[in-house]
Amino acid sequence: MRGKSIIESRGSEFRALLCSLALFAFGLAAVSQNNPTATNKPVKTFRAGAATSNVTPPLGLSINGGMQDGKATHIHDELHARCLVLDDGQTRLAFVVVDSCMIPREISDAAKRTIQNQTGIPTSHILMSATHTHSAPACASVFQSDPDIAYQTFLTWRIADGVQRAVNNLAPAKIGWGFGKVPDQVFNRRWKMKPGTVLKNPFGGTDQVQMNPGVGNANLLEPAGPTDPEVSIVSVQSVDDHPLALLTNYSLHYCGGVGGGHISADYYGMFADRIQQLLGADRRDPPFVAMMSNGTSGNINFRGGQAKQPSYGQMRLVANEVADEALRVYQRIQHLDWAPLNAQQKEIQLGVRLPGKEEVERARQIMAETKNPVMQTLEQIYARETVLISLYPAKVPMILQTLRIGDLRIAAIPCEVFVEIGLKLKQKHPPVFTISLANGYNGYLPTLEHHKLGGYETWRARSSYLEVEAAPKILHTLTELLARFK
To answer: How far is it, in rounded angstroms, from Cα 80 to Cα 270?
Structure first.
C-alpha cells in the first residue's frame, strides 16, 4: 500500500508538471500573439517629425545675391529653417532646407555637430541645404557682401533647434514619393549668340555664350543647354492620412523681383505657404511643414517673355503653378507604412583654379586705379575676386552625400549645379533627384563642355573656383555612393 501510494503520488506530480508546462506554452503563445515585438521578427514602425525655426535677421545686415553690397531695410516675409526627421526603427535621417542664398560649410558643420550631440543623429545622416533666395542675409563672403558673425551664430543654433524639435515631434507615419513636371517656368539662361557677336569677359578675353542676354536680343541663336522640368516630391502623412510634411525639389535658380533692401524667402517660401493651403494643412498640431529644395539650377532661370509682373508677382506665379502640380502628384502617391532608410557620405579633395602671377598683378593694377572703394565695373569686381582667390589653398575639401528612402535616392552637392549633371544622375540612377547648395558652398559646378564655352558661371571668383574637372569627379563619387545602396 505504501509503495502504491508513492507511485500514485509521483504520477500526480508528473501530470501536474505536464499541465503546468502546457499552460506556460499557451501563455507564451498568447503573449506573442498580442505583442508581436516579443517574437524574433519585430513589427517595423516608421516615424517622422517636422518643425520650422524662424531665422529672420535684424535689419541692417548685408544681403547675398548681388555683385555689390546691399543692406536689409525691410522684412517682406519671414525666413525659416524647415526641418524633417525620418526614422525606420534603426536609422534616422534629417533634412534641413534653409531660406538662405548659400550656407558655408563652417555653419553647416557646426549645426550638424550640435544636432548629433542633442539627438544622436550622425552628422553623415543630416542633409542641410540653402534654397538660394537672393534676398536673405549674407552667410558667406561672396563678391562685396560679407556675413555678420552674430547672425551666423544665431543661424547655427536655430537650425539645430529646428531638428531637435522635429525629433520631439516624431510619431508613427507613412511615406511616399512621386514626380510631376512644370516645364513652362524653367529657362536655360546661357545662350549661344549669332556668329560675329563679341562677348567680352572681365579678364580681357571673349566667351562663346552669354548669361541672360534678354528675350528680345536680336543676336540670340539657341540655348546652350537643356532644362529639367521635373518636380520631385517626398510626402509624409500621419497614420490617419493627415499631411505631416512635404519635401519638394525643383530646378529653378530663384525668381527675385523684390523691393530694394527687402528680406524674402522668394518662391521657395511662397510655395510652402501655398501647398499648405491647398492641402488644408494649416493650424495643425504639430504643424505641417512644407519645404522646397533647389535642384540642379546653376544655369536655369524662370522663363522670360512673360507679362511683366509687379514686385513679388513672378515668384508668386511660379510658386502657385509648382504647388498646383505638387498637389496633383500628392493625390496619387501611394504612402507606405514603412520604408528603409540609409545614408552614405564621402569627403573628397578638389583643385582650385588659382590665378597666375601675371593675372594677380593685372588685378592689383586695376584695383589701384579704382578711386571708389566699392568696385563698380565687372572688370573691377573680378579683379578684386582674383586677388582674393589667389589666397585660396591649392585644394579644398567637399562633402558628397547620398540618402535612401525605399527605392528613392537623393544626391547632395555643395554647389550651384548645372542642370546637365542632375539629368545625368536621373538617367543613370532612377528614381533620384539632386539637392544643390547642400552641406556647404563651393560655388558653381559647370560641366567640362560649359567651361569651354565660358560665360558668367565659369568666371573665376569665390562663387566659381573649382577645377575644370570637378563635375566628372563629383559624378564618379556620387555613382560610387549610390552603388552602395544596392
So the answer is: 12
